[in-house]
Each structure stands twice: as structure tokens, then as C-alpha cells.
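Design review, sub-item: ligand-bound model
Attendees: FS, YL, KQ
YL presented the inputs for the adenosine-5'-triphosphate complex:
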Amino acid sequence: MKTKSKIMGFSKFFVLPFFASIMLHNYIVIHALENAEIVIGFTEDERNALLALKDGLRSTFLDDQWQSFDCFDHWYGVNCSDNRVVGVTLENLDIYGEIKLDAFFNLTSLSVLSFKNNSLSGELMDFSRNIDLTYLDLSNNHFNGVISPSLVDLVLLQSLNLQDNRLSGAIPWFDQSSLKELNLSNNNLSGPIPDTKKLQSFNSSSYDHNLFLCGPPSSTPCSFTSPATNNSGKPEKSGIVVILIIVNILGLLVLLFLLLLFYKKNKQLNQKIIEKKEKDEEKAVEEVEVETSSKMMDRHENGGKEDEGKLEFVDGVAEFELGDLMKASAESLGKGNFGNTYRARLEDGRNVIVKRLRDLKPLSNDEFMKMMKEIAAQKHPNLTPILAYYFSKNEKLLVQKFITNGNLFNHIHGGRGTTDRIPFRWSARLAVARGVARALEYLHMSPNSQSQTLVPHGNLKSSNVLIDENNMVLVSDYGFTSIISNTIAVQRMFAFKSPEFLTSKRVSKKSDVWSYGSLVMELLTGRLSVQSAPQDENAVDLCNWVHRAVREEWTAEIFDLEIMGQRSATHGMLKLLQLAVRCCDKSPEKRPEMSEVVREVESIKIPNADSESEEDMSGDGDRSLTDDSMSATPSR
Ligand SMILES: Nc1ncnc2c1ncn2[C@@H]1O[C@H](COP(=O)(O)OP(=O)(O)OP(=O)(O)O)[C@@H](O)[C@H]1O
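KQ shared the predicted structure:
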């Protein structure tokens, strides 16, 4: 009896709403297409629009499928009715690329549009001409920018799913009564949730995991009273009405006051524009100004309630409060595999990195704190310092030192083929190979590593190697194998792509050695690696590639042209290549230990800066390497 009532309770709260939401979802899609008595063909404008859409998407699948003149003859995912396109459903296809803002202008009968679970990027499209749209699902892609204000005017829209993207800015004033399903969670949206009947009618899960979103129905209260800039302009309209009334009542005196206020705001706006320009130049992704919830700060400062955590500082000295972080202006640096990463600028001008951790193992507060303490206790000049961490029911944060000079991925690949490219010389690459080797050696040898919970690093890749203002090389995201859920680790961490994991389902320190070999190959070849750019179609499994390259004697094609011209470095490059080949060995036992790697990489002489700048950096490359010189056998 007891068990039965438990099950009843469970189904009441979880199973029934789950099925109800699936049924609602299906109902909306079926209803949207119910009049679609399918016939062959579509207008020429629509066909051209679909072909233009296909051109922007990098998908060989669509290239094959979308060719003929008839809508139903191989146009995968396209539904037509009465010679008009009424539905485009391209889900789970791993499609990349951007969709133009006006891509759907000519599809004016479109009712259902879904691109869910792909890798599309760029800004959301303009749907102002798609007045029949009832179902829109762009979830789980990489869309950025604001939510298109054109969606507010779609009075037939019933279902809107934009979750799991990188959308920023305020939520537009949706209030159409047709809307039955809404999910905006897991984005970078900010500001108060607009006070419309419709938006307030959804529960907080529609808005979850938007760090800077506040106000009901979310659980984060807003402290600021002035409405955030929005896309529909509604607050501005009511603001104008209010201002007009005040002007009428108070006359010239108030007008002068408003002018003064306007002058001040304008000045602030100009300041913001200048700041934004500077940020764009630094290739910042976006910036969101936020203010804190004073209530949250108060609660935190007063010791907090039960479910509110405490910011734990690694060195025991609280350098700032959680409230300071919440108050800071935050710039999103990207959506990593384990959560979003922000650069937060504290009021005193200091920058710190805040990682919102997701997909963790089901750890209790104590377990998380213990794990993080162990991870953070690993200190080495080549490891990015962890400053603090935080655990609450709904939020797990990792605060790291901000490393100013970017990541290795950008140093190797950034600005290629443009005048902005800053050459990444051999000496700098060798310094990276040394720094990373030392960091891994430390992680593998430190007393903490004996517990076996913290090793391997598991996710060594070029975006996790940072370079500071003194050109010091710092490895970050160490220890994640101990806190990230196993299923997610297997899917997303690079060590789990190693040959041994594929055969024996186990990773070890030697899997890090294999990752190191691949990273060194990225340094030497300048090629995109699946390690760091897994979804890029030009990315290569460099460990496999190097074995083929050496076997098939592609002697002249291995090294990055940018360093080929540095003739005095040829010997060092070959030594490093031989080391990388050994690290990439399919059999873990044949790979060297990291301490051996450190010894070998340190024996390679770093050229001095003067001789390096004298050498030919023109990029012609020295193609005089002989086949013998490329032998993978170590030359010691
Ligand atoms: N401490 C830091 N200082 C400066 N930049 C950082 C720091 N930590 C991360 N970054 C940068 O922020 C961006 C996002 O990092 P994040 O770790 O979330 O994702 P990732 O490295 O791309 O992937 P993954 O989640 O698999 O590690 C990357 O460009 C990374 O180089």
C-alpha cells in the first residue's frame, strides 16, 4: 500500500506532467499540420528560399536530399500543402552554419519550423512575414544575440522552444494568448522577466539557468526598479506616457529635470558604446550589465538560508562576497561542455572567471566541497589557480583566476589568412609543449594523485591551455573527471576518445599522455584537431593522422608553414614530432610517462628571440626535410 501510494505520488508530480507536456507538444505539431493535405510541388520563390537556406548550412546530407523540383521528391524534412511549404523539420542532423535573418521571408505559409539538436549559430531569424507560424523549435543549437522581436507579433504561435542556446539580452514582451508552450532555459538572457499575463503564466523551469534573469516567475528577485531595455519597446511606450503626464502636471520645472536626466543617461550610453567597441575589438562575445539582488546579498551576508551556499575561498581569505560576483558586469566567454563560463569584473576592477558547472555527479554539499578542496589544493606554476567554489541546490560555481592572454586554440588558429594574424613562433610553441608537460607531470605525480580520484586530467585540449601576460602557460579544468557525471565525461572529455577507452572502457594517466601527443601535433601542424574543434568538419584526429603521415612519408606536409621557415629550429621540431608520435601510440603501455616527456621536451633547445626574428617568417616554408629526417624513431 505504502509503495503504491509512493508511486502514485511520484507519477502525480513527475510522470503525469511529463506525459502531459509530450501530449501538448504532439498536439501542437499535429494540429499545425492537420490541414496539410500533402501535394507535390511548391512555388519557385519558396524553392529558391530553401536552396539559399541549404547553401548557408554545411550539410552534405541536405546537399544530396534537396535537389529536385518536387517538394515531396527527396526534400527531406519539408512539408507542403496546396503547393506551399508549411513545415521545415530538420532535427538531430548535426547541421552547422548560419541561417540568414531573412531566410524565411518567402516561406509565408510556414507553420512548423524545427532545427532542434543541431549546431547552428548566428542570430535568430526575422519571422515577421511568417504570420502562420504556430510551432518553432530552435533548441540545443549555438544561436546568439537577442530573441527576435518579430516573434512577439506572431498571434498564432503556440509553441516556442529556444532553450540551450547562447541567446542574450532581455526577454521580449510576449503576450499572445495562443502561446501554450515556452522554454527559454539555458541561455544568457538577462533582466527582469516582463510582467505580461502570458509570460507570468509559465513556471520557472521555462526560464531556468539564465544567470542574469530575475523576477517572477523565476526564483531570483530583482533589485533594480527601472525596466531593462527590451525588444518590443513596450516599457518605453508606457514611460513616454508617464513622462507626458508629468510634463503636463509639473510643467517646465520637471521638463528641465528630465533634460538633465536625459543628458546624464546619454553620457552613460556613450560610455557604454565606447566600452562595447573596446570589447568587440577583444573579440568578446557579449556583455551583460547586471545589478545584484540586494535581498540575495543581504541573505548571504546574514549567513544565508539552508539552501543557499557559501563561497569557499581556497586560501581561506574571503576576497569578495557572492554578492560582489552577482553585482559584477559579466561577459560570457562561451558555453563549455560542462557549463557556461563568464569573465566577471568586480567593482574594484579585478577580473575573475566564473564557471557555472553543469552535469555533475549527484554530489552532496559535503562531497562537492571535499572534492573541490582536493582539486584546488593542486598548485603548480603551470596550473590555472582556483580561487573559490560555491555549492547550493541550484548552482555550482567554480571561480578561477582570469588569465589575460587568451587560450592556445586562438594562438594557433586565430586570424589565419587575415592581416590580424599574429604569428605563433616556434619558441612560443615549444614553451607551451614544456609548460603543459610540466603541469601534467605534476598532476600525475602529486600526492593527491595517489587517491586516483583526481587523475587523469581527462580533457586536455587547446582551449584549456591558457597563456598569461608573462607568456606563462597554464592548464585549466583539471580534476573535472572526479566531479562530472560519468555519462557526460564519456561523451565530452577527450581522454574518453582514446584507443584504450574504445577497447577496454578505461582511461588512465596514459590517456592524458595520448591527449598530450595530440595537442603537440596541433602545435606542430597548425591543423584543427578533433580534440579542440570536434564539430568542425575540417578537424582531424591528429594522433591517427601523424601515424599515417609518417608511414606514408608526407615529409613536407607535416609542419605548420608558419614555423617551417625557422630553419635553425628544424632539429627541435623533429625531436618534438618524434616525441608526439610516441605519445600517440595506440597501446598505452608503449607511451612514455609524463616525467620522461618532460625530460625530453626540456632537452630541446629554445632558440633565442633575436635569431628567431632574423629568420624567414614569410611562410614559404622549408621543404628541404629529408625522408630520413622524418623517421618516427627517436633520435637519441
Ligand atoms: N581562467 C580563465 N581565464 C581566461 N579565459 C578562460 C579561463 N577559463 C576558461 N577560459 C576561456 O573561456 C572559454 C570557455 O571556456 P570553457 O572551459 O567553458 O569551455 P571550453 O574550454 O571551450 O570547453 P570545455 O568545457 O570542454 O573545457 C574558452 O575560450 C576558454 O579558453
